[in-house]
Amino acid sequence: MIMGSNVALADLSDHVSSVIVSLGWVSPTGEGDADVSVLLLDANGKVRSDSDFYFYNHPVAADGSVQLLGKTPTADGSEDRISFDLTAMPSGIDRIIVAASRYGEARFSELEDVRITLADAAGESLLRFAVDDAGSVAAVIFGELYRRGEGWKFRAVGQGYETGLAGLATDFGVDIEDDATTEAEAALDGSEADEQANTAAPAPTETPVRQVPLEAIPAPRRPDGEAGELRKSAIRPRTAKKVTLPKTVKKTLAENDSWRQARLFPVSILKSDRDREMRATSVLLSVMAQVPEFSRRLTAGFGAPAGRMETFTEVSLPHGDSPRRPDGVIRVERAGKLWTALVETKTNGNALKADQVQAYMDIAARRGYEAVITLTNDVALEGSPLVDVKIDKRRKHKVALWHLSWAEVAHEAQMLIRHEGVGNAAHAWLLQELLHYLQHENSGCHGFQNMGPAWVPVRNGIDDETLCQGDARALEVVENWERLIRQVCLRLGGELGQKVLPVQRAKRGADPKERRNRLADQLCRDGRLQAELRIDGTPGVLTVSADLRTGKMRTGIDIPVAEQGYPLSWAKRLIRRLAEAPADLHVETLVDSEVAGPRGTLERLRPEPADLLPKDNAKITGFRLSLLKSMGSGRGNAETGFIRSVDDAVHRFYTTVVVHLDTPATRRTQSKERATAE
Question: DSSP for 197-258?
């Protein structure tokens, strides 16, 4: 695209309900970098509030419409990716500004190949815009997404700002006195912030719009003990290079297989649940304090700033007659301010204690702490908190209660060390040691691993047809099924390095409790648990169905046919693509008719693909692929348990079937408005 041109996303692909925008550049020295930012604007061209401004200190929207995914290593440096769920974008948002800014004295003229690309939900690249002459500016608006009717369009902008992120944000209504905006311009440490805060700022290079000089942004105060010491350390630009541990393990120097490699976090001495909780807390918090990339992924969604982090364990805090000892404390210092969270952890199948969490909420409120973070093997569901706590509305200071699952922690570690990369080899090694610890059978950090006490009674009630609608035990099983599916998504996403999310077919905004009640009634009637998973880069939605009457589990996917071509060609191509798939794979032809299409196993269809064609010449709309296996009966995570069988079934179906399928085809047409600026 060229500067000023625009295009409708629907003209480029059928899969633009969500898109991935990537910003990239090349540094000749290998040390140049920039920070991306996003602003959501209303019809007046302004943010509704400062929360519509997303940057590295505020990377995720609560509704999932915006998510800054961080940097992905490339051959020349890295790319910053941003995920936009356009279906979740609030109706009051008309435009989405995508920009990037440099820090200190750095300018975009020092970078090469400055560009923005946009891909659809399947990962298919749709457009590219190169900012050929960024000039000596500190910030650049790369492009914008904006509404037109029921759809969205993209415009290539390429506008530069000499005043950097502060001037750009102020132009669109962000209050520069707000802490978040101050921190965004302050870079990553106090010395950089001081340098930037005293830098003069001329007007932008493009349209003459109001700018605010950087002097208006106060410099952060130094920590105690440094007040009289004026450090003049040189600003070192952050590197764009990322490193990961090698995927192939070097040959061991051990004499025999009985030798065990020394681990940073040993698990052999853990004897009790208390030992496991203390060790797991200390291991996790110590790694968070040393690996900023990892800690940001865990705490950014909780409102923690990007700053100097220190972590503590077994801290004694006064509470009534006897002090309380939370498992851990996280403190982040940024611009002279502290963000503090108390941490309460549980391992194995141990549940949170409501009175314990309530006490920590009260302590945090009295001491002015921002959050209480609980960390267990359980998975929190929307509208169904793990513990009920009472909030004293008379208190001016509000404390947020957040929950993390050990499966989420392992997922974030996997994403960094196996797919996205971290800043240096030492950080990668620390994350590898953490992941090894979490996945060890003795750590107690195995994620959701029990379908609950209602599992056996519900199965028996389905078998003898005595389970009635409205039974509370059916609702408990449905809630645990949803937790299990969320964990399956985390594990598969961590292995693939892709976004894997459960699909909710209920109308957007529907009450989650009502939805679960409907699913519980369906379980009582049909005896089946069903779920759908959306995996980036796959041609359809992966379905999982557990039939508690027959004890069978079905995993499947519906794939559409191409817009052009002949039915026999579609069938032959599909069979060729599935050459290495299991012979017992079921293949069914989907037709635009009330009569079901032909079906058969892959073993039978390989010599005769034409058997997939309907005899009545009905129109073929797609093909359904599915695998059947026996499901586990136990409620736990043992080899014969239900949880393990679901995890194994999804993993087997993806690795033996889905990986062989084509990525979704995109429909590309020449836009009539490509060279027309609106």
Answer: HT------SSS------GGGSPPPPPPTT-TT----PPP-PPP---B---SSPPPP--SSTT
Q: Supply the mean pLDDT for the chain.
A: 81
| Amino acid (1-letter code) at residue 52 | D
Tokens encoding 187: 């870079």
Q: Both ends of the chain: CA-CA distance in Å? A: 15
- With a pLDDT cut of 90, the percent of the chain lying above it is 43
Q: Which of 483-500 are b and which e, b meaning 16 or more Cβ less than 10 Å from the residue's Cβ?
A: bbbbbbbbbbbbbbeebb
Give the C-alpha distances (Å, rounded to integers) separating 488 from 57, 631, 639, 645. Answer: 29, 15, 16, 11
Give me 212's structure tokens.
Answer: 């605010």
Q: Which residue would you say has higher pLDDT here, 464 or 123?
A: 464
- Say if residue 538's pLDDT is above 90: no
Angle at 383 between CA 379 and CA 387, to 5 degrees: 60
CA distances from 4 to 132, 144, 159, 522 (A): 13, 11, 10, 53
Q: What pLDDT, in 10s, does the model give residues 641-668?
A: 899 999 999 999 999 999 999 876 443 3
Among 59-63, 281-285, 586-590, name the one with the lowest average pLDDT: 59-63
Q: Cα separations (Å) of 565 from 11, 215, 335, 569, 614?
A: 21, 64, 62, 7, 16
Which two tokens mark 468? 């009635």
- The string of DSSP letters for 33-61 reads --EEEEEEE-TTSS-SSGGGEEBTTB-B-
> pTM, whole model, 2 decimals?
0.64
Provide the CA 297 distance to its chain's centre, in angstroms.
9
Main-chain phi, psi angles of 148, to 5 degrees: -140, 105
Do the Cβ atoms of 154 and 148 come closer than 8 Å? no
Higher-pLDDT residue of 664, 568: 568
- Residue 641 is given by DSSP the state B
Residue type, 631: M
Tens of pLDDT, residues 229-245: 323 333 333 333 455 55
- Count of CA atoms in the C-beta half-sphere (13 A) of 379: 22
pLDDT at 242: 52
- Whole-number Å distance between alpha carbons of 484 and 637: 11
Block residue for tokens 């390429």: 158
- Residue 64's pLDDT band, with cuts at 50, 70 and 90, is confident
d(CA 167, CA 357): 43
Q: Does residue 200 contact residue 188 with C-beta atoms inside 8 Å?
A: no
- State the average pLDDT over residues 525-531: 93
Task: State how far the Cα of 438 lies from the Cα of 336, in Å rounded to an integer.
Answer: 34
Identify whether the C-beta of residue 554 lies closer than 8 Å to the C-beta of residue 631.
no
